[in-house]
Design a protein that fits this description.
8-stranded parallel barrel, Lyase, Ornithine Decarboxylase, Chain A, domain 1, alpha/beta, 8-stranded mixed beta sheet, elongated, about 450 residues, binds pyridoxal-5'-phosphate, TIM Barrel
């Protein structure tokens, strides 16, 4: 009788080798975490723009070595967002001007301008900065209720695409200045359409109670002036009704219908509206940045395409700010102290309202995560904290009564969705340093954290 030769199947050998590699590289603990807890693994699902873990375990390990606080930019998410918008814009034949007030970081602007977008600016310095970051003058528009004479002059000499004018007096001044300097200035008229954007009252801009734009009662005087003024070219109409708009289809459909009526009125008086600029305002998901890493641009573009009435010779513009950049950054901070008050527990962070003023200014919500605790334990005990900054103001609060895993001094924290209206509004209040920028693809350039308790780091 022939003894059967013992065999080991190829699959078993491969499985054994693979398991060995996994365990050697990650250890069983980390393998288990990566498998069952998504924070431990970057989910490469950006192609369908659905879910994306920005702060995965490898990233956290790098960030932990950097001196806090700092703004961390995920360049992959940023570029994918911009590319996605560029694609949609082309499909819908809608031109995009990025509202640079949301974030003026040079690297971001250079990428956005390289995609052929224009820039929407609200100050003379923004105009000059946009131009220096690659936006051609002919693709820069300039809005804002209070442009100084110097700002108007500089932009006029640069030959920008259009001034988005917000009052009759501003139009008279631009006309005079153009006359004086022997040029013709392109202007669009910003209209206040009196539409409720259903957003926070501090970021609503299209109601009669707001300071922006020109309203109905001045239309006839305006049209009369535009018809006879010799030193300005009437380019079109501009609208921007507010920011962080989440009822996207409802609000933007309504805006388009109102815009159609106003365009029809201006054209019925003999003016040609060459350009219809609908402004920005698309909201982002501050509650769930990983679940909705990219704003709902499809719904926005569809709402516009299906509701705006346009001729072949009319261009349509949008001006997204927040939606292009908000989700790609997190403000990374550290817990300095844990303090139990009489009725509350406080987590005192090293980032404050000087770094990001939105919570103090608008009561804005940002998701806050304890990145260290996520690595410490699978099933942590949760506790309610008032998370606060170091600045000497009672309004320097990141979030009250937030439920977080038990947190300790030194824990690394992430304040999410801070790419828009974050760094641009930072100040040096309390003489704090400005939080630096750290890019995901240039982590080695980031300023390293110093351990002040380690004597070996001391200069002898
Ligand atoms: C004229 C104008 N256009 C566009 C925007 C960008 O808005 P958002 O960041 O909400 O897209 C703003 C911001 O307030 C604005 O004032």
């Amino acid at each position: 009788m022939v003894e059967p030769t013992p065999t080991i199947s190829g699959t078993a050998v491969c499985g054994f080798i693979l398991m060995n590699i996994i365990l050697r590289k990650y250890g069983f603990f980390r393998y288990f975490c990566k498998r069952f807890f998504p924070i431990f693994e970057r989910q490469q699902a950006l192609s369908n723009m659905k879910k994306y873990i920005m702060l995965d375990i490898n990233t956290i390990e790098h960030l932990d070595k950097i001196a806090t606080p700092f703004y961390y930019y995920d360049m992959e998410l940023f570029q994918k967002t911009v590319d996605h918008v560029a694609e949609l814009a082309q499909q819908h034949e809608i031109k995009v001007h990025y509202a640079i007030k949301a974030n003026v970081e040079r690297r971001l602007l250079e990428y956005i301008s390289s995609k052929g977008f224009g820039a929407d600016c609200v100050s003379g310095n923004e105009v000059l900065h946009a131009h220096s970051c690659g936006f051609p003058a002919g693709k820069i528009v300039y809005a804002g209720v209070g442009k100084s004479d110097k700002e108007i002059y500089d932009a006029m000499m640069l030959g920008i695409e259009a001034f988005n004018c917000e009052s009759l007096q501003e139009i008279f001044v631009i006309n005079e200045m153009a006359h004086l300097h022997g040029v013709k200035a392109n202007i669009s008229v910003r209209i206040n359409p009196d539409i409720d954007a259903h957003t926070h009252k501090y970021v609503t801009t299209g109601l009669y109670e707001n300071k922006f734009g020109i309203s109905n009662h001045e239309f006839d005087k305006l049209i009369e002036f535009l018809q006879k003024s010799e030193h300005i070219n009437f380019f079109g109409l501009h609208f921007h009704i507010g920011s962080q708009i989440t009822r996207v289809n409802e609000v933007f459909s309504l805006e388009c219908k109102r815009v159609n009526e106003i365009v029809r009125y201006f054209e019925s008086k003999g003016l040609t509206v060459k350009n219809i600029n609908l402004g920005g305002g698309l909201g982002v998901d501050y509650d769930d940045p990983d679940g909705s890493p990219v704003a709902d641009f499809e719904t926005w573009f569809n709402a516009i395409s299906s509701n705006i009435i346009r001729r072949k010779d009319q261009s349509v513009h949008v001006e997204p700010g927040r939606s292009l950049v908000a989700q790609c950054a997190s403000l990374i901070s550290r817990v300095l102290f844990v303090k139990s008050g009489e009725t509350k527990n406080f987590l005192i962070m090293d980032a404050g309202m000087n770094d990001l003023i939105r919570p103090a200014l608008y009561g804005a919500y940002h998701k806050i995560e304890n990145l260290s605790a996520a690595q410490r334990s699978f099933f942590p005990t949760y506790q309610a904290y008032d998370i606060v900054g170091p600045v000497c103001e009672s309004s320097d609060v990141w979030g009250a009564g937030r439920l977080l895993p038990l947190s300790v001094r030194g824990d690394l924290m992430a304040i999410r969705s801070t790419g828009a209206y974050g760094q641009v509004m930072a100040s040096r209040y309390n003489m704090k340093d400005l939080a630096p920028t750290v890019f995901s693809d240039r982590l080695e350039e980031a300023p390293q954290a110093v351990d002040y308790f380690d004597l070996s780091t001391r200069v002898q």
